[in-house]
Amino acid sequence: MHSSPNDECNDTVKIFRKAVTLISVIIPSYNHSRYINRCIDSVLFQTYKDWELIVIDDGSTDQSNDFISSYNDERIKHLKQENRGAHNAINRGLSLATGEYLAILNSDDEFHPKRLERCLDAFAKRPHAMLASSWIDVVDSDSKLLGTKEAWRNMEPWPVEHKERSFAALSDYALNALMSNFASTTSNMVFRRKLYEDIGGMRNLRFAHDWDFLLRACSQYECLNLEESLLSYRIHQTNTISSNRKAMLFEVCWVMAANIDRFAAHIMTDMSSAGITTAHLQLLESINFQGNDQVFWLLYWTISNLRKTGIQNPEEMYLQDTHLRNSIIAYIKD
Length: 334
Description:
The protein is built from 14 helices and nine strands. By secondary structure, it is an alpha/beta fold. It folds into two domains: 7-238, Spore Coat Polysaccharide Biosynthesis Protein SpsA, Chain A; 247-329, no CATH class. The chain has helices spanning 5-19, 36-44, 64-69, 86-96, 115-125, 173-179, 193-199, 209-218, 245-259, 264-274, 276-286, 293-308, 317-320, 322-329, and strands at 23-29, 51-58, 76-81, 101-104, 110-111, 129-139, 145-149, 190-192, 222-234. Residues 1-18 have low confidence and may be disordered.
C-alpha cells in the first residue's frame, strides 16, 4: 500500500512535534482576580506555542478561580489548594510539570509575547546556561509603565553610593545577584529542568524565595540575562513585599547568611583578577544588610558552625521554628 501525500504530511508533523521543546509555565494564583485574565492571556499569546500551563490557586477568596475555570484549552491545568504560601504553590506546580524547560509567572504579572521564544533562542546559543532572566517593565495597577529595570544597571532596591566601585560595574551575573535580587521576581526566571532537579524548588520564605533560588542557581551554574524587556512586573498596594518590612529584612539577612559561602570561589577568582584591594572595596560597596549586620552575623555564624557538624541545610531551622525566627526579627532595624 502506497502512502498518500496527507499521510506523509501527518508523519512530518508528528516528527516536528517530537522535536519541539515543551515549556511548562507555573502560575501561583492568589487573590488577583483583577489581573489573572491578563496573566493567563499573556501565556496564550506567546509566539512560542509548545507549552503547558499549570495554575495552582493558593486558596483565593475572590473570583480568581471562576476566571481561571473559564478557559477551555487542553494545555491549561487548574488546581486548587488551601492557602500555603507562594513558595508551596510554585513547588507543587514544578512537581507536576513535564516540560524540558520551566517558567514561573506570578498571577499579577505578564509575559511579553516573545518571552518564551527569546529565552529558548538564548539557551540554544548558550547550551551550558541553566537559567535565563531579562530586563523587566515595571508597571502599576493600571498597567502604566513606571520604568524599565535593566538588570543590575538601574532601579536598585536600596541606594548604592559608589556603583562604579561595586559589583554593578562588572558584567558578572553571579556577583551582581549576590549584591541584590536584580531579577526582582520568580516571574523573571526560565530554567532547565536539570537545574530544578539539581538544586530543588523554592524554600519556605515569604518575601525572598526568588532570591534564594537565584543564588543557589547562579552560584553553581551559568545564568544569562537578556537585554530586552520580556516581562511586565506589577507594583500595587497588595504586593507581598509591602506587608511586613521587618520580616522582609530578616529574610534578606537569612538569604545572604545561607548562601554567601557558595560564592567563595567566585569571589576569590575576582580578587585574583581585579586585585585584592579593588576586590575588597567591591565587597564593601556591594554587600548591604540595611543596618542589620548584627542579625546577619548571628545567622551566618550559627549556620556555618552547624554545617561543620555535618547538619545539612541548618539555615532551614529558622524557617521551621516560628518562635526562633520571630525572636530574631524583633532585633531587625527597619
